[in-house]
């Protein structure tokens, strides 16, 4: 799963780069393009940083950073579609992939947090 997600976030970034290249190089297209480029390509960077986390809290923080970037990417994609910079249909698959990545990363964070709570309960029970 770890390797697959590493590749999947990289493919997402590459698709964002292709989108950026296809956008108009002036006006709204340029401004929104730069925003989606920055947010969309940083998702994979955050995920890779999380793989080198020093603790569960550090891991969660980095994954949550990726989630923030995915949310921001989704926002810029919405503006590109609703602002008629690109046809909404052209962005559908990319938006869907972003939503799927959000779901995956949210699940990962929940599992790590639950695991941490379980350890805390076990430590408290052992101390009694």
Describe the protein's topology.
Blueprint: H1 2-22, H2 27-50, H3 56-82, H4 88-127
Helix pairs in contact: 1-2, 1-4, 2-3, 3-4
- State the end-to-end CA separation: 38 Å
Mean pLDDT: 91
Fill in the CATH topology: de novo design (two linked rop proteins)
Find the count of extended strands (DSSP E, 2+ residues): 0
Gross geometry: elongated
Tell me which CATH architecture applies here: Up-down Bundle
Strand percentage lies at under 5%
**CATH class assignment:** Mainly Alpha
Number of domains: 1
Number of helices: 4
Give, in order, the helices and strands.
Answer: HHHH
Structural class: mainly alpha
Keywords:
elongated; de novo design (two linked rop proteins); mainly alpha; 4 helices; 128 residues
Describe the structure.
The protein is elongated and about 65 Å long. The chain is built from four helices and no strands. It has one domain (2-127): Up-down Bundle (de novo design (two linked rop proteins)). It has helices at residues 2-22, 27-50, 56-82, 88-127. The N and C termini lie far apart (38 Å). The longest helix has 40 residues, at 88-127. It is an all-alpha fold.
Concise summary:
By secondary structure, this protein is an all-alpha fold. Helix content is 88%, strand content 0%. Helix 1 packs antiparallel against helix 4, helix 2 packs antiparallel against helix 3 and helix 3 runs antiparallel to helix 4.
């Amino acid at each position: 799963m770890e390797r697959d997600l590493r590749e999947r976030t990289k493919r997402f970034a590459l698709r964002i780069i292709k989108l950026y290249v296809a956008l108009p190089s002036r006006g709204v297209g340029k401004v929104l393009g730069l925003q989606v480029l920055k947010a969309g390509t940083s998702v994979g960077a955050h995920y890779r940083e999380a793989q080198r986390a020093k603790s569960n809290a550090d891991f969660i923080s980095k994954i949550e950073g990726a989630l923030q970037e995915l949310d921001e990417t989704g926002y810029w994609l919405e503006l590109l579609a609703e602002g008629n910079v690109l046809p909404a249909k052209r962005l559908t698959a990319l938006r869907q992939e972003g939503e799927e990545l959000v779901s995956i990363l949210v699940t990962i964070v929940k599992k790590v947090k639950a695991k941490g709570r379980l350890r805390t309960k076990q430590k408290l029970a052992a101390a009694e």
